[in-house]
Write a structure and sequence with these properties.
2 copies of one chain form a homodimer. By secondary structure, chain A is α/β, with parallel strands linked by helices. The first copy, chain A, folds into 3 domains: about 170 residues, MoaB/Mog-like domain (Molybdenum Cofactor Biosythetic Enzyme, Chain A, 3-Layer(aba) Sandwich), CATH 3.40.980; about 80 residues, Alpha-Beta Plaits (2-Layer Sandwich); about 150 residues, CinA-like (Maf protein, Alpha-Beta Complex). Chain A contains 13 helices and 17 strands. In chain A, a hairpin with a 2-residue loop joins strand 10 and strand 11.
Chain lengths: ~425, ~425
């Protein structure tokens, strides 16, 4: 099954907007076992569009075209699709009615130029867009089936998942059921995880499970694409491999599927009716910003305190005499955590203090990270060192702090060596 | 001058990494008056690469190829370039020496497989890469001049700006000097700014200035691309147009060129030897996170306080009796600002309190934003309302708060209606 993607539009071609639709579609197709063989980007230009469609029509089995379905004169996809297929553009009465309803539900009259959006090539199969006025459609050009999709990301995403991918899968003769299982880990590099997971695919002797990774520092996503005859078959194949991944990556798995590290942490706090205060320095509010805005965080997040000078914490909290006056120590970190918890009335406090190296930013600039976690009857401490420039240290400290809190709340060891630290 | 870009690599084609190199290159070319006509993405596959090179060779005047210059077996650009041009691959002695130096400076021995990076097509012109081992090169294939560049973003960026763009400009016969002037504004939508700037290009009667925009909510970038015979000519043409843009957009310009809103604000505070404390709620640390990590912020940023429940501020600060006990008011906002300033010992305090609407996230969910700024002898207040869902409100409140502080520090009115608010 040879698949191509054609992205259209001057804004994408000139880089005025980043082509996130391509980088959304390609992995979505990979996730169900399909591969993109060729990507093309052209502007709102008749000659370029026609040439792009004709070239893809000679090479591909399926082509996804994105953009150019709007009501304005520079939206040319239907017109050029009809031309490439050698058929007429005809008014699609059903879609016209749908659009008129769409506007009347919003107490508006449909502007005349929207009528253009109901003009489809005569041989087109309509593809529903339940959330917009751009009508999707499919038709054959040359040897390929073309699928035309809207440029608005949320309309594209819904149409791709609900309408286009099932049609392509049906044509590809792939097994009926495909499922993507994802594990999010923190603290292990991609090559390390790859090595830890050597051979897991073979735990399904039918070869129905494919392993892949997606790294976005500081986290790594491990993906298992499972194909089966039905969902029971999929789950049967997946079960031993999921169990092996959980066992081999162990404490480093911070979340699965649509969960996030911060969501898991918030849920753990909600589960114990906990409240949280956070003290941070060079991360400068980024730890609070991961947690405090989430739905339900209003019941959990008590207070965040950001300082750049450690000494300022002596004004923010009442601390033991001499605390933070000299060299940074474990005792001082723990004292800040205990004070932050008690003096803000929270059940839990997380303290992440970063001593950034002196000097201008450079690729090997580092930071020493002092982490304290306190409840009324327990205090944990972790020290780490990360190298890689200001922003790298900052991102790493945010993730390390959140992960220590997750481990604390899950009864896992707070101190466990990670690949990114130099200690 | 017809320019094409070919991006190569399985990681880009499968969407495993987002193709930021394309969205970097296209606007960089636009900025100097060049346009990309066609974009192609192919994997590390001999047939696809050869077909992509051959197609571009029949259509384009200049082609930029990105990626595939590394030392591993899936890096195929030199080999396929030689094949497409019908010439042999030969060892480039100069680059081999450069690589050996590169490794010896780092006290390492060059691995044998790096030798592959010095194999170039016989007719290639070497293009220097001062910061990596991937050798850039240019050669003719068909009617087009091809420029081969590394996939590592920082290597690509340097090579594109210093080596590739000057060569393409020289071939295009464009005027020798081109300059990009940028204005960053906050509070006016793109169509509003477009309308305010109607006719500014015509202030240069030679037609040497081109106006463009790049929107990234909540800010808008206004770009002037100026062509001239030399830099004096460029500056002569730019001066009246820059003056007109500054006059028409006035208080809404937050920064120019490489400046940022937060950088301008920090510089203004440094200029008055000021110190700052920030109090925020639903923005949840994002305002602090824009400012407090910047170089030199350690001398300015005194304290940030994040809460989700307004009442918690009564514990964080000593406030007048009854303050924050009932309906939110201007007086309460101002009292928090005054208390935050005085009780943290800062010269300035910025308070941004967001009352988010009840209910699940939806596209028209809104928030009321209460902003207070205090110094020892002056207090300013602004109330606003933004609709657009949780994340939209959050981003808008961060920017509005920072912009109010910028205006305060610049002696501009803190309250001036913006296009994004519903009040």
């Amino acid at each position: 099954m040879r698949i191509e993607i054609i992205c259209t539009g001057d804004e994408v071609l000139t880089g005025k907007i980043v082509n996130t639709n391509f980088s959304y579609m390609a992995p979505k197709l990979e996730d169900v076992g399909l591969s993109v063989h060729w990507g093309t980007t052209v502007g709102d230009d008749r000659d370029s569009l026609l040439a792009a469609f004709q070239l893809a029509a000679t090479r591909a089995d399926a082509v996804i075209v994105n953009g150019g379905l709007g009501p304005t004169i520079d939206d040319l996809s239907q017109e050029i699709a009809a031309q490439a297929a050698g058929v007429a553009l005809v008014l699609h009465e059903e879609w016209l009615e749908r659009m008129e309803e769409f506007f009347s539900r919003r107490a508006r009259t449909m502007p005349p130029n929207n009528r253009k959006q109901a003009m489809l090539p005569a041989t087109a199969e309509m593809i529903d867009n339940p959330i917009g006025t751009a009508c999707g459609f499919a038709l054959d050009i040359g040897r390929a089936r073309f699928f035309f999709t809207p440029g608005v990301p949320r309309e594209l995403r819904r149409m791709l998942e609900e309408q286009v991918i099932p049609r392509i899968l049906a044509r590809s003769g792939a097994p009926a059921s495909i499922h993507l299982k994802r594990f999010h880990s923190y603290g292990l590099g991609e090559s390390h995880v790859d090595q830890l997971l050597t051979g897991v695919e073979a735990l399904d002797p039918t070869g129905g499970v494919k392993l892949g990774f997606r790294a976005h520092y500081p986290q790594l996503e491990t993906k298992l694409t499972v194909r089966g005859t039905d969902m029971d078959d999929v789950h049967r194949k997946l079960a031993p491999i999921s169990a092996a991944v959980r066992q081999r990556l162990g404490n480093f798995i911070v979340a699965e599927d649509d969960q996030t590290l911060e969501g898991v942490t918030l849920a753990a706090l909600l589960g114990v009716h906990g409240t949280l205060s956070v003290v941070e320095t060079f991360t400068a509010g980024q730890i609070a910003a991961r947690l405090a805005h989430l739905p339900k965080a209003e019941a959990v997040f008590r207070r965040g305190v950001v300082v750049r000078d450690f000494g300022e914490l002596r004004h923010a909290f009442t601390l033991p005499t001499g605390c933070l006056a000299g060299e940074m120590t474990q005792a001082a970190t723990e004292a800040v955590a205990q004070a932050a918890r008690a003096q803000t009335g929270a059940t839990h406090a997380l303290v992440v203090l970063v001593e950034l190296d002196e000097g201008a930013d450079r690729i090997d600039l580092g930071g020493t990270i002092w982490i304290g976690i306190a409840t009324a009857d327990r205090t944990e401490f972790r020290r780490s060192r990360i190298l890689g420039g200001r922003e790298w240290v900052r991102l790493g400290a945010v993730e390390l702090g959140l992960d220590c809190l997750r481990r604390f709340l899950s009864g896992l060891p707070v101190v466990e060596r990670i690949d990114f630290e130099k200690t």
